[in-house]
Amino acid sequence: MAKRTFENALTKLDRITAELEQGDLGLDKSLKTFDEGVQLVKFCNEKLEEARSQVDLLLKKNDTLTSVPFSEGPAASSNNDESV
């Protein structure tokens, strides 16, 4: 069996969605297919989180590019406001 990739999992998830939306599957097959879809969603989310942790933002400060981890980028810092 080939190693699962994000792209392959996403393609298979698209096919599963189409099958379920058609409504032609029996109950047992629908539940099995749905469960497979849930597992693929979990896999895709894990891969996206891994990629997110590897992404660095390049910010321009004082005419110099500075590398900043994605989670500490401008959007994240504006969400850290703890005032209620």
What does this structure look like?
The chain contains 3 helices and 2 strands. It is an alpha+beta fold and 84 residues long. A two-stranded antiparallel sheet has the order 1-2. Strand 1 (56-61) and strand 2 (64-69) form a beta hairpin. Helix 1 runs antiparallel to helix 2 (27-54).
Helix/sheet category:
alpha+beta
**Main β-sheet description:** 2 strands, antiparallel
Give the oligomeric state: single chain
Gross geometry? rod-shaped
Q: Helicity level, as a percent range?
A: 55-70%
Rounded mean pLDDT is 81
Number of helices: 3
Q: Span between N and C termini?
A: 52 Å
Stretches where pLDDT is under 50 for at least 5 consecutive residues are 76-84
Please report the total strand number as a whole number: 2
Mind telling me the C-alpha Rg?
Answer: 20 Å
Order of SSEs: HHEEH
User: How large a portion of the residues is in β-strands, by DSSP E?
Assistant: 5-15%
Widest beta sheet: strand line-up: 1-2
Present the secondary structure layout:
Elements: H1 6-22, H2 27-54, E1 56-61, E2 64-69, H3 74-78
Helix pairs in contact: 1-2
Brief account:
The chain is an alpha+beta fold and 84 residues long. Helix content is 60%, strand content 14%.
Task: Identify the notable features of this structure and list them briefly.
84 residues; disordered C terminus; rod-shaped; alpha+beta
